[in-house]
Every structure is written in structure tokens, then in C-alpha cells.
Amino acid sequence: MTPHRIYAMSVASVYGHYVTKAQKKARTQAEVDEIIRWLTGYDQHQLVAHLEAETHFEAFFAQAPLLHASRSLIKGVICGVRIEEIKDPLMREIRYLDKLVDELAKGRPMEKILRNA
């Protein structure tokens, strides 16, 4: 089976879209960064380094210091697919990120997005 083309896309190429989506709904780039850091365990310096290096999604998630244990609590539909039914682990991680950014853009409080409440 051929790997999905998104795996070879750089995180930086999608990051701008995440930020734009959030900002259109009066959210901030800092909040997008917080979501990414929460999900992956990267600190801000590491995140910026990956964006500047144009790291592709496969390497970005493979090198993540600590994928958050509560990420399995992220449920729902993204791109017409129920997240909890995605079999491919990498695609599921990417969709977790997409879902968190969607929740941010929909105005959900950060405590709930980060599964703290």
C-alpha cells in the first residue's frame, strides 16, 4: 500500500493554514503552538526548529519527545472520518492535530481542548 502523500508534506506547509484558521476566529498563533506542544511534547524551540527545517509529518511525529497520553480522548469526525476508527497510527496522530485546531477555531476553551477539564 502506498503511503499517504500527507506523510511526506512538511508540517510548516500546513502550520500556516492552522494559524490562519485560528486567527479568523479570534484565536492566536500562540494557542496553535500550545496545542502542538501539548500533543507532541516538543518545547517551543524544538517546534520552531522543525518548522524552519520543514520536517515532514512522518518524521515530526516519529521524533516527538512524548505524545500526550490523553490524546486518545480526542474523538469525533475530521475530514469525514471518525478519528477513533482510523487504523493507521500516523494518520490518526495527524487527524488528532487537525481536530484540536478545529476545536480551537470553534471557540472551545483551551482547558477542554487540552483535555484538562
What are the main properties of this structure?
single chain; 117 residues; mainly alpha; Helicase, Ruva Protein, domain 3; two-stranded antiparallel sheet; 6 helices; 2 strands
Number of strands: 2
* Corresponding CATH superfamily: uncharacterized protein sp1917 domain
* Global geometry: globular
Count of individual helical segments: 6
Which CATH architecture would you pick? Answer: Orthogonal Bundle
CA-based gyration radius: 13 Å
User: Strand order within the widest sheet?
Assistant: 1-2
SSE arrangement, N to C: HHHHEEHH
Q: State which percent range the strand residues make up.
A: under 5%
| Average pLDDT | 93
InterPro entries: SP1917_dom_sf, UCP033199
Task: List the topology elements.
Elements lengths: L10 H14 L4 H12 L3 H10 L3 H6 L14 E2 L2 E2 L6 H17 L4 H4 L4
Antiparallel strand pairs: 1-2
InterPro entries: SP1917_dom_sf, UCP033199
Pfam families: DUF2200 (PF09966)
